Every structure is written in C-alpha cells, then in structure tokens.
Amino acid sequence: MPNLIKKLLFLLEIGNHQFNSILWKTCPEKRKTLVNDIFKFNIPIGKSKKEICELFGHEPYIHTTRTWSYPVESDKFGNPFISLSLYFKDEIVTSIRLNIKE
Fold it and tell me: How far is CA 12 from CA 8, 16, 87, in A?
C-alpha cells in the first residue's frame, strides 16, 4: 500500500521523491520532484562527466567545459526557468546549484 501512495504522489507531482536516473532521463516534467534528493545526498559530487551523462542523460546545456546545466522545470513554451547546474574541476563535479531565472 505505501508504494501505491508513493507512486500516486509522484504522478501528481506532490512532494519530493528518491532520485531515479531513468525517471530523470525519461520524464523531464517530473524532475522537480527529484531535485531535493540530489542535493540531500550530493549525488553528482565526485562523479566524472561520463558518469554524469549516464546518470542525468546526454542533453545538458554545456555553458563551458566547467559548467553543465540540466533543465528541471520549464515554462509552457519549453524554456527552462529552473535548472540544475553542475560545476566541474579537472573533469569531476565539485559543486551543484539550482538556478532560477526570474
């Protein structure tokens, strides 16, 4: 029964949910429910660019070789206004940040 409730809350985009790489990559509209877990457990910290692509997918916005961003939430036109930014040093993620465009 608890699993059914968790699935229902996830489908309704209510609350925060455990990070799941497959869901992150296949259901971008649900990413905002996964973000807290990413920060709580520092999931990307210490990972290589290859590992990040495996976890988060191959469609980051690459601002520089040191900064990649993944859209978390977009407006009705598909323009991201919340993004997860990953900062690299020597090809390894050293910090993460949630960026909100105003």
Answer: 6, 11, 31
Q: How far apart are CA 43 and CA 13, in angstroms?
A: 21
Domains in the chain, CATH or no CATH each: 2-100 (3.30.1450)
| 3-state SS string for the chain | CHHHHHHHHHHCCCCCCCCCHHHHHHCHHHHHHCHHHHHHCCCCCCCEHHHHHHHHCCCCEEEECCEEEEEEEECCCCCEEEEEEEEEECCEEEEEEEEECC
Mean pLDDT score, 31-60: 94
For residue 88, give the amino acid letter. F
DSSP-assigned beta bridge partners for residue 97: 85
What would the pLDDT profile of 20-37 be if each residue is shown by its tens digit?
A: 999 999 989 889 999 999
CB 24 within 8 Å of CB 33: no
